[in-house]
Amino acid sequence: KLNEDVGDDAEGYRRWQLRQKAHNQLKPPTREAADEAYEPKPVESQLEEAPVVKEEAILRFGETGNFEPSARKISSKPGENGAAVKLPSNERMKAEITINEFGFNMVASDKVAMDRVIPDTRHKECRFWHYPESQPSASVILVFHNEGFSTLVRTIHSVVNTSPPELLKEVVLVDDFSDKRHLKTELEQYVEKEFGDLVKLYRNSQREGLIRTRSHGAELATGDVIVFLDAHCECNRNWLVPLLDEIRKDRTTMAVPIVDGIDFNTMAYTPVYGADSHFSGIFEWGFFYKEKLVPQRELNKRKHMSEPYRSPTHAGGLFAMDRKYFHELGGYDPGLKIWGGENYELSFKIWQCGGSVKWVPCSRVGHIYRNHMPYGFGKDNDPFMSPIHVNYMRVVEVWMEDEFKEYFYTREPSFRGYPIGNITKQLQFKKEHNCKSFRWFMENIAYDVYEEYPKPPPNKAWGEIRKSGSSLCWESGSGQPGHTVGIMSCHGAGHGQLFRLNVQGQIGTGERCIDSQSGGILHVIVCAREPSGPWEWDKGSGMIRHKELNKCVDIGTDHKLHLKSCDNKLSSMKWEFKEVFPW
Ligand code: UD2
Ligand code: MN
């Protein structure tokens, strides 16, 4: 149980210590040790010699040091304390319609209080950090495109309710050319009435996508620090101050809160990670964003479990940065389209050009993970090359050296050569600021990426796998693990018909791999950590052989791919790879 309240008393603290030990994590500090280590020590004689003592946050047990908004009791309203909202069956149909429209259940959201209490998901230590009073001021920026009403305004309420008023300079809303009626005058009037000048609403005159809209918001903001959140979040206890404190200590730090989950259907608030396990943001070589347990080596750099730690990257939506530093870095690459990859662009740029990215365990913010993306990409849409991939390529071409670019193009060979627009400005920035290499980044910051995603061996062959002389191709369907591999007419559009055979005998499709499972039918599987596999393709005979089982791939009467005894006279066992560039 993560939120089980152990209380502030000595007994509760002891129980908490025992549980900590059981988790086999870092030893928690004893109350005495913590007090001793952090008891302010400047005696007068020392003060004369060193008049400027840099203020430090202090962990002092017994007395909570956090900003506490006026206490609100848990009410009997739906969703209180982060509970799931249960809908009567007659509202289910309407709920489904809203899920389809917004990616989350607006019927459920509409029932939840604007200031509902959510469970405190932080590490137990967090309540006892005392942060210096003088902190930079913050502009919280929310960009939105066709969001639901109650989820959007609950985000604003939550920011305002949970932030110390003297530190929250403003909330900047930027509407990315929404066309929903409830986001026009209804929103303007609501915001004006509830928040007055504190909340500012700006609108784009055309669809820009979330990345350019955020840059726009950063230009409009006036606080010392800019904090970005998605327009469907709820902030947890004292979330803002620990972020600001990292930036106060070092203005080149990007401070990232830990993201809790809010269920798209029930609005239930639950932590994705327990308070004792620390994760950080990484990537695989096709640039799908991943999270991974932080290596002990990083955790050991800190004294306390609840202290911030370094992370290679972040999920994208929620973070704080010094406003001027953001602009000094050139903000986001303006060539990035609509959605995706901007998290890598910014974090690689920060790390390689002298800053750092830190995740802050005492700052937790809930985010509704949608069940699908409810909006299209507007004029940036290209049915044969997703703008997300173009974004990845811009990042790869600017921030990586050849060796690392090659890993990306090994994973996505059909992207090679796609025109990505002009990147001279980005390259010039990198040069002028003497930014470090990607190799440096991989060796010093993202070294544990290799544990999950070793360098991919080169491809021996890739493309559609066609039955020789026919227009029938291997097809992995959704590409989800467990899906069988079948045979279909070749469509040339890539997706589930793109396969790669590497020199280690592994056949991959997207981020997944292919193996045979019991019954000898080919399936999509989660790739083994070591990039090796059982496959061998003989170009001459066309046969694809499973070396361990000594069987070859054949077409079954069920239109699936089966392993059968190898027979080079069978035309259904002859395969050729045909490279395709769908764009
Ligand atoms: C994740 C991030 C998101 C962003 C994205 C990659 C989290 C929790 N979320 O996707 O912030 O980094 O990855 O780019 O880390 N929006 C616009 N214009 C658009 C599309 C979206 O303003 O054209 C707004 C949208 O209303 C929302 C925000 O941008 O407030 C993020 O969009 P999302 O919630 O659809 O992205 P998400 O959470 O799937
Ligand atoms: Mn989101």
From TrEMBL:
Superkingdom: Eukaryota
Keyword Metal-binding: yes
Keywords on record: Disulfide bond, Glycoprotein, Glycosyltransferase, Golgi apparatus, Lectin, Manganese, Membrane, Metal-binding, Signal-anchor, Transferase, Transmembrane, Transmembrane helix
GO molecular function annotation: carbohydrate binding; metal ion binding; polypeptide N-acetylgalactosaminyltransferase activity
Annotated Basic and acidic residues bias: 29-42
Membrane topology: Single-pass type II membrane protein
One BP annotation, GO: protein O-linked glycosylation
Cofactor annotation: Mn(2+)
Keyword Cell membrane: no
Region of interest called Disordered, as start-end residue ranges on this chain: 21-46
Pathway linked to the protein: Protein modification; protein glycosylation
GO cellular component: Golgi membrane
Enzyme Commission code(s) on record: 2.4.1.-
Record-linked CDD domains: beta-trefoil_Ricin_GALNT7, pp-GalNAc-T
Residues spanning the signal sequence: none
InterPro entries: GalNAc-T, Glyco_trans_2-like, Nucleotide-diphossugar_trans, Ricin_B-like_lectins, Ricin_B_lectin
Annotated localization: Golgi apparatus membrane
SUPFAM superfamilies, sorted: Nucleotide-diphospho-sugar transferases, Ricin B-like lectins
UniProt domain Ricin B lectin: residue ranges: 459-578
Protein family membership: Belongs to the glycosyltransferase 2 family. GalNAc-T subfamily.
PANTHER family linked to this entry: N-ACETYLGALACTOSAMINYLTRANSFERASE, N-ACETYLGALACTOSAMINYLTRANSFERASE 7
Protein's name according to its UniProt entry: Polypeptide N-acetylgalactosaminyltransferase
Species the sequence originates in: Elysia crispata
